[in-house]
Amino acid sequence: METQTQSPSTFFDSQWDDEVADGLDPVERLVYRSNLLGSDWRITNTGGGNTSSKLHQTDSLTGESVEVLWVKGSGGDLRTAKNENFASLYQEKLIALQNVYEGFDDRGPKTPAEDTMVSMYAHTTFNLNPRPPSIDTPLHSFIPHAHVDHMHPVSCIAIATADNGPELTREIYGDEIQWVDWQRPGFELGLALQEVCQNHPEAHGVILGGHGLINWADDDKECYLLTLRLIDQAARYLDQFDEGQKTLGGLRHPVLDEQSRKSVLVRLLPWLRGRLGQKARMIATVEMSDNVLDFVGANNAAQLAELGTSCPDHFLRTKIKPLYVDWSPDVDNLDDLKSRLDDGLAQYRNDYAAYYESCKRADSPAMRGGDPTVILIPGVGLIGWGKSKSESRVTAEFFKCAIEVMRTAEAVSTYTALPRQEAFDIEYWALEEAKLRRMPAEKELARQVAFVVGAGSGIGRLVTQRLNKEGAVSAAADLNLDAAESTAQELLDRVGTGIGVAGTGISGCADVVGLMVDITNRASIRSAMEDVVLAYGGLDHVIVTAGIYVSSDADGIIPDKSWEDSFRVNVTGSWLVADEARRVWDAQGLEGSMVITTSVNAVVPKAGSFAYDGSKAAANHLVRELAIDLAPLVRVNGVAPATVVEGSSMFPKDRVMASLAKYGLSYDEDESTELLRRRLSEFYAQRTLTKKAITPQDQAEAVFLFVSQRLGKTTGQIINVDGGLPEAFLR
Ligand SMILES: [Zn+2]
């Protein structure tokens, strides 16, 4: 097949590297091509689109060469896809399924016969590959060319949603690209594409009405370059009509400056999160890129928002439409915004129920939540909501794409959304429902936001990891910003920053941010909490593990400054953190918790450490006072460790050696700090009832219990995690 060579592209440059590709086997080349295509949001959205190659491989059953369709399976994202994200299927058997389909009397788009075919794909599996094939499989199989790319590019969706889409397609591409009217992806769409290939052997692809682009070639690199060129051709064509916001009817509401936007959001987000999260909490992502700000402030924003998104991938996440609030941006008039949001939410829920009622069929699944996942606020931007950070981020990304689609479609023609019934038939498709049901159960702390103070080392670091493992998103805060960021980065390195997508079975990424906080400074605490609110939309749990240990000097005297520091950090610090978190908790109106790390020293007086011990005794009582003060919304508890030496910044080498000397244990100054810490830790272990060394993990486990619902009815309590010290028993 011949590929047209165009002048060098200005929008989409090829990233293909022959040196890399030539060192790969055919399946790896498919993965390589997919990763390149998935790395640009203008080419395809996160989790959207798919690619395939028909390859000749040896059948282990017969030893013969057979044609195998490798096609991106259900779930997974092209940008990060690996070999295991691709299904492998006997091409011959897939084609033979057409005979099976012919055997149904009642067949056609959206018939039970068509849906039945989906369960047949697994029967064509080659080599026991466990990856489930996607519903787009027949689109790839029935196109009689070796390589097929199906993308959701902004420029092509704009054409696919323009009301004169077929004419535009012809004008831009001539005979090279054909048009197929909107049809839900499935067996019938595969047959329609097969027919296009038969009737138009000269064609290289199809614009799928209301949906996107699919194109093919017999060489993989050629297919990749073709995909780029076709997207580029559409983008260049549309670019001549681009008039920015003028296309959207011009300016209605001005954009607030960055500081004012932030000021609105930090006050609004917790309140809004509370409004949306009465049944199940949500995590937010704020999007304030120029195209979003232009859109929300435009005259036509309300009318376009009401039409909703089109590409099925888009509206499955953004819902049938976003909630647009017609608020005149005014940083001093948040009450007006809130009351408009309250009205808007009520209206949205009514509209959603009406949409469900008018479109539902006899066998439709029950109505799902009727809250918006995208909220548009003039002057401020777009807020995406989801059950995880990654889901809300993808939702925000999709609406950003949808805005580009609407704007460019409006520039050249008139934007058309998918008919409501078609949208409903996708949203409540039995196959979508099955996908949702297959998703793994949510983790225990999913949808919850934790703010961990002292996360740069020791217990705080382990607490961040522990809560994250249970599904919480967290802010790792520390006086030492580098340490906080390293805790965050270490976690991200371990769990990855891969993007999870609702309904695709991709697990969500465990997000964590590193922040600087000085808990002796109210302004610093407030600023850190504002960052948490901007990152996630609110705050559920606050854990304070920061503390300092001061001891008396050689003459047994504690300097005044050390005494003050001890109380300033160990007591006042926790109080200030609680008092600032209260603002967020009150605005949200959702249940939360606070855990303060105290110490068994609070009840065990010891010579030389009375400033520390006294401050921890005060911290114990602060737990009780706060439990009363913050009830019923927030539970407050304390974890009292004893002698957690391992990895503790409170046990620098000097202190460890001093302790070893005190107990008559041998040491050498040249030994490593960790080695000395272990020796001391072992010594302490022998003084406990359980004879076990106490680790930061042990403390993190207790914090998790308090934060979770496992101890959901306990407040005002201190748990010792000390290996068992009778003198520290609370009574
Ligand atoms: Zn698609």
What does this structure look like?
Strands 3-2-1-4-7-6-5 form a seven-stranded mixed beta sheet, sandwiched between helices. Strand 16, helix 22 and strand 17 form a beta-alpha-beta unit. The protein is an alpha/beta fold and 731 residues long. It is globular and about 95 Å long. It contains 25 helices and 18 strands. Helix content is 45%, strand content 13%. The longest helix is centred in the C-terminal third of the chain and has 29 residues. The relative contact order is 0.08. The N terminus is likely disordered. Bound molecules: zinc ion. The site of zinc ion has 5 residues, from loops.
- Shape, please? globular
Name the average pLDDT. Answer: 91
Instruction: Work out the helix count.
Output: 25
Radius of gyration equals 30 Å
Bound molecules: zinc ion
Distance between the termini: 85 Å
Number of strands: 18
Q: Give the uncertain stretches in residue-range form.
A: 1-9, 498-510
Placed side by side, the strands forming the largest sheet appear as: 3-2-1-4-7-6-5
Tell me the β content.
5-15%
**Secondary structure: helix percent:** 40-55%
How do the helices and strands line up, and which of them pair or pack?
Blueprint: H1 18-21, H2 26-38, E1 50-58, E2 65-72, E3 86-90, H3 91-102, H4 112-120, H5 137-141, E4 147-151, H6 154-161, H7 165-173, E5 177-180, H8 187-199, E6 205-208, E7 212-217, H9 220-239, H10 258-276, E8 283-287, H11 290-296, H12 301-307, H13 312-318, E9 323-324, H14 334-359, E10 374-377, E11 381-386, H15 389-412, H16 420-427, H17 430-438, E12 449-453, H18 458-469, E13 473-478, H19 481-495, E14 512-516, H20 522-536, E15 541-544, H21 560-588, E16 592-597, H22 610-630, E17 634-641, H23 653-662, H24 673-686, H25 696-707, E18 718-721
Parallel strand pairs: 5-6, 9-10, 12-13, 12-15, 13-14, 15-16, 16-17, 17-18
Antiparallel strand pairs: 1-2, 1-4, 2-3, 4-7, 6-7, 8-11, 10-11
Helix pairs in contact: 6-9, 6-15, 10-14, 10-20, 10-21, 13-15, 14-16, 18-19, 18-25, 20-21, 21-22, 23-24
Bound molecules: zinc ion.
